[in-house]
């Protein structure tokens, strides 16, 4: 209330102020070994998505943080602001290499326990995390970040053209498993894959998190538009 | 369970080794293709869930090994030829002896013959026993005698080829040590069998009138005259029998007689009105069950005068004798005027012989010197006839036991046929090629011309030279003709196949008939007739089917190894199918 105006004019006048502050965007890019799978690899696709989102963030004068994680925080780009920083981000993204197991929970925990402002946390990952994806996202929720999940899958994972007697080697931890691929087993695997994807989506839906699932053969531009249509990325 | 190919120990070892090998092979590490995946999280979940929830997943390995071991055991043990008595019967040997005597052609009330019933019985026996049962088939004619075989189709084929054949059936010699012997017969011609033989009777009483004898025979008192002798016997109910004798020239004699049971009818028919050629005797009676003995054949020689040239200085006896012979057209000449002529059928050389043998047959009296005759090596005084061949055609109805000979020439018989001989020298010899007969004595130094047999001898010699002979009498079955390399024809002129055996021609026939065997200018007729009361008496049987002849039938028609291989093949197919669908390992 502008009490001075009231005394002078004998009218109640309410003064309205608008504060514009820059939104911190935290872009978590999964760079575990599992992301180095498929043609093109999921990591490449993730880099492109991250770069596009970073540019949009920078253009909107937001503070953009890019974090590479696997079984821990691998590298972190300090907050960047302004379009001119985009090349630095490109350089950072291009230097990310896939390695290690996935432990998103411990990675996010490490990152968030440092004093951070609340912001938009964008997680770009395949969510093949032996520790579970829910724990990791719970951490981000706990720190009251606005969360947007971009779930990347390779078409080789959706429909693996496997047959016969195989020795499956886990790319992340090199564990092996002898297996006889039968049509029924393949069907069961596909069902399990979609079940897993639906579990991630269901979690996001439950906590009203933004969620977009894509495959590496899905056109990149359409994915960005899809992200925008969700209305969460840009306020 | 027993094993035919291996001992139980060997079979057990084989089973053990096979199973061991298969199991060992089964658990050898299969080289898996290495595939890198982004994460094994989902695969792990799927596999853990399947293994923990599916009983099949738990049993898959065991079942896969069990299938493989079963296949190997089936294949391995099939080699050992296992046998389970309750399923396939025991390994045994059955000898089937089929009676192929002519009486098996007898019709039964159902219109079939006894032989057809015998075939049905034999096939029934073939269907008995187990798959390992070995069969052997033998007939009583000596034509069929197979080896032991489990191939029933082969035995069936042999049975189909068999038929009643011979007129002289004999029970074959069979070894009963490890065999069951079945004899399928009507029991008419073979009454007794060894004690170990299980008899299967196809006998059924029947009516039959049969020709038990039929022949054309010459009348000794009338040269070139013949009569037919016919004998019938009724072996069934009293019957009226029609008799028909027919000749090739259309001559026919019909007669009807009534014969009681077991009655024998004998008759002689004058054939003076018949032309030479085949003579057929046929009888007809109601309900006659055996057709084979209702017909008989004989041959009536063609009557024709023999153009004879007597070459002699002088021989009143011989000349007179030949002139009186109605069937000799005689010409006489002395040795100086002798010329061989194509118009002469036979020559008679009296104490003379030309330098070369004539083209036509000749009777040589005395032992003149000629290159084509055996030379005299001396003289024998008062030779006594010690032996003579009554079966030779020239000696038919001739007795020479009391013939006195003053002197005879000594010759070496060599390859000649000695018809009569003293201890010192042959007295009458014959040559087949060229055809000639020689007396080693002359008629003036012997009383042979005064004997009643002399004209018959001369007649026989001329008949042997050029006249047709009566038919040889044979029975159905294997027929032998004493003429080498002869062609056999039926009365209709159809050539039938024959074989050569020890200078004779042999052919097979199962039915009565008249056959002609020809070789060059030689011709022999053969009358094949059943004409035997043993065969016509179709009711002379005391044969009954033995109770022990019943056989056991088994469900499985083949040896166990066949089913084991089939099961193994089926399991292999299933295993292949399930393996490629990753159902089994």
Account of the protein in words:
The complex is a heterodimer of chains A (235) and B (585). With 235 residues, chain A is of the alpha/beta class. Helices cover 40% and strands 23% of the residues of chain A. Chain A is built from eight helices and eight strands, in the order H-E-H-E-E-H-H-E-H-E-H-E-E-H-E-H. In chain A, strands 3-2-1-4-5-8 form a six-stranded mixed β-sheet, with helices on both faces. In chain A, helix 4 (104-113) packs parallel to helix 5. The longest helix of chain A has 24 residues, at 183-206. With 585 residues, chain B is an alpha/beta fold. Chain B is 23% helix and 30% strand. Chain B contains ten helices and 32 strands. An eight-stranded mixed β-sheet of chain B has the order 16-15-17-18-24-23-22-20, covered by helices on one side. In chain B, strands 25-32-31-27-28 form a five-stranded mixed β-sheet, with no helix packed on it. In chain B, strands 5-4-6-7 form a four-stranded parallel β-sheet, with helices on one face. Chain B is elongated and about 140 Å long. The two termini of chain B are 32 Å apart. The A-B interface holds A 34-35, 37-38, 42, 126, 128, 130, 154, 157, 160, 162, 164-172, 175, 177-185, 188-189, 192-193, 196 and B 30, 32-47, 49-50, 581-583, 585. Strand 6 of chain A pairs parallel with strand 2 (33-37) of chain B, so a sheet runs across the interface.
């Amino acid at each position: 209330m502008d009490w001075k105006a009231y005394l002078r004019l004998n009218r109640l006048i309410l003064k309205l102020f608008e504060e514009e502050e820059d939104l911190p965007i935290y872009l978590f890019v999964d760079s575990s070994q599992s992301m180095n799978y498929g043609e093109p690899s999921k990591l490449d696709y993730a880099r492109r998505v991250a770069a596009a989102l970073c540019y949009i963030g920078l253009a909107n004068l937001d503070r953009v943080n890019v974090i590479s994680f696997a079984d821990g925080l691998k590298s972190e780009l300090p907050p960047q602001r302004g379009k001119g920083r985009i090349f630095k981000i490109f350089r950072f993204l291009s230097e990310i290499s896939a390695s290690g197991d996935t432990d998103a929970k411990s990675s996010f925990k490490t990152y968030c326990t440092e004093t951070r402002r609340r912001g938009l946390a964008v997680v770009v990952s395949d969510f093949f995390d032996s520790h579970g994806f829910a724990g990791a996202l719970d951490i981000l929720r706990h720190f009251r970040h606005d969360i947007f999940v971009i779930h990347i899958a390779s078409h080789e994972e959706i429909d693996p053209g496997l047959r016969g007697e195989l020795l499956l080697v886990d790319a992340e931890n090199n564990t092996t498993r002898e297996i006889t691929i039968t049509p029924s087993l393949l069907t069961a695997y596909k069902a399990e894959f979609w079940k897993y994807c639906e579990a991630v989506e269901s979690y996001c839906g439950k906590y009203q998190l933004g969620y977009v699932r894509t495959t590496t053969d899905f056109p990149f531009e359409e994915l960005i538009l899809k992200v925008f249509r969700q209305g969460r990325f840009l306020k | 369970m027993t094993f035919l190919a291996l001992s139980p120990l060997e079979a057990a070892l084989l089973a053990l080794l096979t199973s061991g090998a298969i199991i060992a092979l089964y658990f050898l590490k299969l080289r898996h293709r290495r595939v890198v995946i982004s994460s094994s999280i989902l695969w792990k979940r799927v596999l853990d869930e399947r293994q923990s929830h599916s009983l099949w997943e738990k049993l898959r390995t065991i079942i896969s090994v069990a299938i493989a071991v079963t296949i190997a055991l089936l294949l391995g043990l099939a080699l050992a030829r296992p046998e389970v008595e309750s399923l396939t019967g025991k390994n045994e040997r059955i000898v089937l002896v089929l009676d192929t005597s002519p009486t098996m052609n007898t019709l039964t009330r159902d219109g079939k013959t006894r032989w057809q019933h015998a075939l049905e019985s034999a096939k029934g026996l073939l269907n008995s026993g187990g798959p390992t049962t070995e069969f052997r088939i033998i007939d009583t004619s000596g034509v069929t005698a197979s080896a032991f075989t489990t191939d029933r189709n082969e035995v069936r084929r042999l049975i189909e080829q068999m038929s009643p054949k011979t007129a002289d059936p004999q029970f074959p010699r069979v070894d009963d040590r490890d065999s069951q012997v079945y004899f399928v017969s009507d029991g008419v011609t073979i009454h007794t069998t060894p004690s170990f033989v299980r008899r299967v009777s196809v006998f059924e009483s029947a009516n039959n009138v049969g020709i038990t004898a039929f022949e054309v025979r010459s009348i000794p008192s009338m040269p070139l005259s013949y009569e037919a002798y016919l004998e019938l016997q009724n072996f069934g109910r009293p019957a009226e029998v029609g008799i028909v004798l027919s000749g090739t020239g259309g001559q026919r004699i019909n007669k009807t007689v009534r014969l009681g049971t077991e009655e024998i009818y004998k008759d002689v028919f004058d054939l003076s009105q018949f032309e030479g050629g085949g003579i057929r005797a046929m009888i007809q009676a109601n309900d006659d069950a055996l057709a084979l003995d209702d017909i008989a054949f004989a041959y009536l020689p063609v009557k024709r005068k023999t153009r004879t040239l007597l070459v002699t200085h002088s021989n009143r006896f011989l000349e007179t004798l030949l002139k009186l012979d109605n069937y000799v057209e005689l010409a006489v000449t002395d040795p100086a005027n002798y010329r061989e002529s194509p118009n002469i059928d036979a020559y008679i050389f009296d104490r003379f012989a030309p330098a070369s043998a004539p083209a036509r047959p000749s009777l040589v009296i005395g032992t003149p010197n000629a290159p084509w005759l055996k030379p005299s090596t001396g003289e024998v005084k008062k030779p006594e006839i010690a032996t003579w061949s009554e079966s030779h055609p020239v000696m038919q109805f001739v007795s020479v036991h009391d013939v006195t000979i003053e002197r005879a020439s000594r010759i070496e018989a060599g390859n000649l046929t000695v018809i009569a001989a003293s201890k010192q020298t042959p007295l009458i010899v014959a040559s087949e090629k060229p055809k000639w007969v020689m007396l080693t004595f002359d008629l003036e130094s012997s009383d042979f011309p005064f004997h009643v047999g002399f004209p018959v001898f001369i007649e026989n010699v001329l008949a042997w030279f050029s006249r047709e002979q009566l038919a040889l009498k044979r029975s159905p079955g294997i027929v032998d003709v004493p003429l080498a390399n002869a062609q056999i024809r039926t009365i209709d002129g159809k050539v039938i196949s024959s074989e050569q055996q020890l200078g004779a021609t042999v052919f097979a026939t199962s039915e009565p008939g008249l056959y002609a065997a020809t070789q060059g200018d030689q011709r022999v007729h053969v009358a094949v007739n059943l004409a035997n009361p043993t065969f016509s008496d179709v009711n002379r049987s005391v044969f009954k089917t033995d109770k022990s002849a019943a056989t056991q039938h088994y469900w499985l028609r083949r040896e166990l190894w066949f089913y084991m291989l089939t099961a193994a093949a089926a399991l292999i197919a299933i295993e292949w199918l399930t393996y490629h669908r990753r159902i089994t390992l």
